[in-house]
Structures are given as structure tokens and as C-alpha cells.
Amino acid sequence: MMAYDVELLREKVKDSGMKIEPLAKAVGLTREGFYKKLDRRTEWKPSQILVLCEYLRLSEDDRQKIFLI
Predict the structure, then answer these.
(1) Cross-referenced SUPFAM superfamilies, in alphabetical order (predicted)?
(2) Exposed end of the chain (fewer CB within 10 Å): N or C?
(3) 19-41, pLDDT tens digit by residue?
């Protein structure tokens, strides 16, 4: 399973002011599916990571810190 910084990701989602449902839809997930990823029950696909980073306007540094890539 992919390792990533869940707490930092949750912080960035909160800081963005975006609601979970539209964010989940943007990455092709249901609200429940998004929470499964946040809870590490399922893995993020690379394409979902890219879209998520774009919507959250994450810097390259933040992306690397969160997804450890």
C-alpha cells in the first residue's frame, strides 16, 4: 500500500475551503470513495493524485511531502 501523509492531506483539503463532494467528483470518486482513500482503505491512482494536486493548488513540495514521491 502506498504511504502518504494523511494528516497533511487533510489539512490541505481543509485549507482549500473546498467541500469533499465536489473534490471527490473532480477526481472521479464518490464521497465515500474519497474518504476510503483518506482513511487508507484504498490507494490513490496516479491520475487521481494529479487532479487532486491541481484542484488543491498544491506546490511540488507539498505534493512530495504528502504522497512521498
Answers:
(1) lambda repressor-like DNA-binding domains
(2) N
(3) 999 999 999 999 999 999 999 89
Q: Could you give the CA distance from residue 67 to residue 44 in angstroms, rounded to a whole number?
A: 9
Q: With CA atoms as reference, report the closest residue to 53 among 40, 34, 66.
A: 66
Options 1.20.920.10, 3.40.50.460, 1.10.260.40, 2.60.120.460; CATH of 6-67:
1.10.260.40
pLDDT in the model for residue 3: 77
pTM of the model: 0.85
Q: Whose CA is closest to 32, among 13, 12, 41?
A: 41
